Amino acid sequence: MDELLKEIKELKKIVLEQNILRKEVLNFEEACFYLGISDSYLYKLTSRKDIPHFCPNGKKLYFNRTELDQWLQQNRQVSNAEIDKQATNYILKKGRR
User: Could you report the per-residue pLDDT of 32-53, keeping only the tens digit for each?
Assistant: First the structure.
């Protein structure tokens, strides 16, 4: 019985994920799930205006999924391989002195 409940919960999670991926605008709970963060942290981000969001009636918060994706991809960290490549290109371009 426990195994069946576990599988039902997993299926419910998969269905929720698929529904969120089809939506362009997410409500607050969906945005928390999509981002994998707690509701208190999302409230903090919105109150500091650190994350793009909409508040059409002054109460409920909504999020554009594409904007959330762009927000998630901010502050990209360059890999060591990319740094090495940039250094090599710089040396080849400027030449050694």
Answer: 999 999 999 999 999 999 999 9
